[in-house]
Design brief:
This protein is α/β, with parallel strands linked by helices and 693 residues long. Helices cover 38% and strands 19% of the residues. The chain has 24 helices and 23 strands. It has a 7-stranded parallel beta sheet, sandwiched between helices. It has a 6-stranded parallel beta sheet with strand order 18-23-22-19-21-20, sandwiched between helices. Helix 19 (570-577) links the parallel strand 22 and strand 23 (587-592). The longest helix has 31 residues, at 203-233. The protein starts with 14 loop residues before the first helix and ends in a 9-residue tail after the last helix.
Length: 693
């Protein structure tokens, strides 16, 4: 076996299973080794039935008191029930749709049951536990990895396949960090780090593995970002844009600027008039006024004779920006055109002609702005909304629309509604300067936030009905798309899945209301249709995944309910909460916590206590780390699999220092000991292929 051995050569992996593994990006032994766990379960401690804590996954050693009983509750639902006992009491175990467990368990045998213990009256219960015969354990009695899953792929299977891959070819993993760097910072070798990141013998071994792999990722990231920055500073001069006071622009607005907006505008004006190309990130909370800061940049560039492009991640959001900016720019004599995929051929042709001839100054659109045939007469500024939805390469592609030859590269302004602690932003947005709008305009409707359990579900449904009766609308957010789909559903049958839940709500709970649903697997045009219908008041309740996080403005939406809220990061919950409170109506956010864990509840109460996105971001980074903070598509820069930017700032500082030292001695990484680093950085920044000259 080697790193390129296909998964189809592993025992138990046929074509159907290989197809499911491919959904997770797992095609080879090397892919399995590189897919680090998303978490761990410490299954070393074993409890008695009586002493086991409620609501937490634990191991219990108990004897099967009798033979398991198989019963069919209804079509498609089979139960296997077992009574297990130890010296302190009885545990009532239920397996859903696992009829094979009737034959797998024998009366009188001792087993280790791993699962969450619940209490029903005086009975202690456990549903769908992992079971192993005592003394013959492989998946209990140790620290177990928890992987990202998809339908048909269990954690048990992935752990087994990864173990085989490590046994067969961990020794073949290339050592890419320069030896001098590894020795200077006391880092583990790559083979032992990869073995321990998957199957650590102890928390200490896991810490060492994480440190090595985190350092490695952050080292390559730092090298790449330093290259981007040095390339930018060595680039041609930017489009000349004279500065003008923000107060002149404010005269076009029907509301006053906040101090934070004014400060950001001054930073933008300094960039545009500096003679260098602007590459600036404007980050701020939902509703903080980032769009007006971008509009100021457009206004400055337009008055200097340059065209501008604003790219949004969805058509609905692009249309929203167009509706906001078009009349504002018209007051300054600036023509704005919309360019999205759903326009008619004639509308697209007209917009393209106006841009090519220079009559239209501002183009607002989706990725359609990147398409062939869209040309600008004199592009001087590119604005992208919601940076983490666009890669560095997409920004570059739009910037490349500037006229070739002697024309200067356009200025780039990026807006992000994900508040990121400033120190972290300065690091991860290494090719951008950072402005922070940390003030909300006066008059924003505060959103009342509540953390509730399952026992309040009926009251919550009644509240939805009451608000709908008043003409308001509600979002209900779920972590999964459909039953059996994705890691969120795997092993957690209580999770609300969008399609199943929407149907249940429409048929059983709100038959008199208009319930619609939305999820990321729908075709883009269908997603746009559903969102536009909700924005237009054609549905009362929208059941959705976090696809609405980057969002259209629906002032009439006054309630957002987030199911299984403990599954989300605080910053993501804060983003979702920002979908309501955008109008004049009193607005509410209800966080439904399915689990009983007090830690999870405490975390959610942090969100209920504060509306400061930056404070929430700091807390989220402490609690969960940036992997969950940013979600799977990581802010347009290379995704980090192991690095915990917040959890160990010391590793981050060391990695950046090491990167600087290596680049000072060998800027192009041409020395033999640095060629592997060069290859890895190129691979990491594949969207920017010319990162090295």
């Amino acid at each position: 076996m080697d790193l390129s051995t296909p998964v189809t050569q592993f025992p138990g992996v046929g074509p159907a299973r290989a197809e499911k593994l491919e959904k997770l990006g797992l095609r080879t032994a090397g892919d399995l080794i590189a897919a680090y766990p998303r978490g761990y379960e410490d299954r070393r401690a074993v409890y008695t039935v009586r002493d086991a804590p409620l609501g937490e996954k634990v191991c219990i050693r108990a004897m099967a008191a009798g033979h398991p009983r198989l019963s069919r509750v209804r079509r498609g639902m089979e139960l296997v029930q077992l009574r297990a006992v130890d010296a302190t009491g009885a545990l009532h175990v239920t397996f859903f749709n696992q009829s094979y467990m009737e034959r797998a368990l024998s009366a009188g045998e001792e087993y280790i049951f791993f699962g969450a213990v619940e209490e029903q009256g005086r009975r202690r219960t456990m549903a769908n536990p992992i079971v192993e015969q005592a003394g013959r354990q492989e998946h209990t009695g140790r620290i177990m990895p928890v992987y990202r899953l998809t339908a048909g792929i269990s954690n048990h299977l992935l752990a087994s396949l990864t173990r085989l891959a490590l046994e067969g070819c961990a020794h073949l993993l290339p050592e890419t960090l320069p030896r001098a760097v590894r020795e200077a910072y006391g880092l583990a070798r790559t083979e032992s780090a990869h073995r321990s990141i998957h199957f650590p013998d102890s928390p200490e071994a896991l810490d060492q593995a994480r440190r090595r792999l985190s350092f490695e990722e952050l080292f390559y990231l730092s090298v790449g970002l330093d290259r981007l920055k040095s390339r930018r500073s060595a680039g041609r001069q930017g489009a000349a844009v004279p500065a003008r006071p923000p107060d002149q622009f404010a005269a076009l607005l029907p509301f006053p600027l906040t101090g934070a907006q004014r400060r950001t505008m001054e930073e933008i004006a300094r960039d545009l008039s500096s003679g260098k190309t602007m590459n600036r990130l404007v980050q701020g909370d939902v509703g903080s006024g980032k769009t007006m800061a971008a509009a100021y940049a457009v206004w400055l560039a337009a008055l200097a004779g340059w065209q501008c492009a604003l790219m949004a991640p969805t058509e609905v959001l692009a249309r929203q920006h167009f509706a906001t900016l078009s009349p504002l720019m018209a007051r300054a004599g600036i023509e704005t055109v919309l360019l999205t995929g759903s326009l008619t051929a004639a509308e697209k042709r007209s917009a393209r002609e106006r841009l090519a001839l220079g009559g239209a100054v501002l183009a607002v659109g989706t990725h359609a702005l990147l398409s062939q045939g869209v040309e600008f007469a004199r592009l001087g500024l590119v604005v992208t909304d919601e940076q983490h939805r666009f890669g560095v390469g997409q920004r570059s592609a739009l910037a490349a629309k500037a006229e070739a030859g002697s024309a200067p590269p356009p200025h780039v302004l990026v807006m992000s509604a994900t508040p990121i602690p400033r120190t972290l932003a300065l690091i991860i947005y290494g090719d951008l300067d950072v402005s922070v709008i940390d003030q909300l305009p006066p008059g924003r409707t505060p959103v009342e936030t509540y953390v509730v359990g399952e026992d309040k579900r009926q009251r919550m449904y009644n509240f939805v009905r009451r608000l709908a009766g008043e003409g308001r609308q509600a979002y209900i957010i779920c972590p999964a798309v459909e039953e059996g789909d994705g890691e969120a559903w795997a092993g957690a049958p209580d999770l609300k899945a969008v399609k199943v839940y929407a149907r249940q709500l429409q048929e059983q709970v709100f038959p008199d209301l208009r319930v619609d649903f939305l999820h990321g697997k729908m075709r883009p045009r269908e997603k746009e249709r559903v969102m536009a219908a909700f924005a237009g008041g054609e549905s009362d309740v929208l059941v959705s995944t976090t696809v609405i996080e980057v969002g259209v403005d629906v002032p009439n939406a006054a309630l957002i309910i987030i199911e299984n809220a403990e599954r989300f990061g605080l910053s993501q919950l804060h983003q979702l909460r920002g979908r309501v409170g955008r109008g004049t109506h009193r607005s509410y956010c209800v966080l439904m916590a399915a689990g009983r864990g007090e830690t999870a509840r405490q975390r959610l109460r942090t969100l209920a206590r504060t509306r400061d996105g930056f404070a929430i971001a700091e807390e989220d980074l402490k609690l969960r780390g940036p992997g969950d903070f940013f979600g799977r598509r990581q802010h347009g820069l290379p995704a980090l699999r192991a690095a915990d930017l917040a959890g160990d700032m010391r590793v981050l500082q060391q990695a950046r220092q090491a990167a600087r030292e290596v680049l000072e001695q060998d800027p192009e990484l041409e020395r033999p000991e640095n060629r592997a680093v060069r290859d890895r950085v190129r691979q990491m920044f594949s969207e920017t292929p010319d990162i090295f000259n």
